[in-house]
Amino acid sequence: MAKIGIMGGTFDPIHNGHLLLGRQAYEEYGLDFVWFMPSGQPPHKKDRHVSRMEDRCAMVKLAIEGQKGFVFSDFEVSREGNTYTAQTMKLLKEAYPQHEFSYIIGADSLYEMESWYHPAEVLASVPILVASREYDKEHPVMKKQIDYLTDRYGARIQILHCREINISSEEIRQAVGKGLFADDCVPKGVGQYIRSHCLYREPDTLQKCKGKNRNITIG
Ligand code: ATP
Ligand code: MG
Fold this sequence. Notes:
Layout lengths: L2 E7 L6 H13 L4 E6 L14 H12 L5 E3 L12 H11 L4 E7 H6 L6 H7 L2 E4 L10 H12 L3 E4 L8 H9 L10 H9 L6 H10 L7
Parallel strand pairs: 1-2, 1-4, 2-3, 4-5, 5-6
Helix pairs in contact: 2-8, 3-5
The structure holds adenosine-5'-triphosphate (ATP) and magnesium ion.
């Protein structure tokens, strides 16, 4: 039996906030492993272009290289079609009945979870470890949301006492799109990967980047 925290995300790109969350969960809850599990085509992110799965996975692997207890998991990307968290948790428990899973999230996910596919199943399936995170829409305090989800769905939710880190993938994509550096927000290898593959470029800076990286296939 191993205690495994699932760190799921689009990871477009993975950043230092994700890594800090994983590390805090690993240490605070005595996990044996944290599985970094990139999503396939995420159903709730259909409104924007999501980078190729190959690029997102490559960046996750670079980010966790040499990090104790951190493991890459292709459990979602290897499934066809939409991958919903409710299904993932069910399938994980079936595939690995010997392990004890928990689900690591930021507060924004806690506030939005009720709009996911079959939220009751997600919330009842595995314990949740949640870290606070800046959230710009109106919302109750985190403790209130935890009490609400616990009462309504029988969720088991614990707080990750993580230092709040104000980074999002969206902010990184926007900065890089304008040709700015975001290297302070991502591990070194990820910063290099973004540059050499010309990810997140807007049309005007994309051509310039492609010119500099002619030998690399860009999706
Ligand atoms: P995007 O801006 O594209 O939505 P993101 O930075 O929110 O990207 P995701 O891949 O959507 O990253 O997030 C995966 C999980 O990590 C979610 O549960 C999210 O709440 C959590 N998370 C991401 N960044 C942080 C952060 N800075 N602090 C706390 N939790 C975070
Ligand atoms: Mg997000």
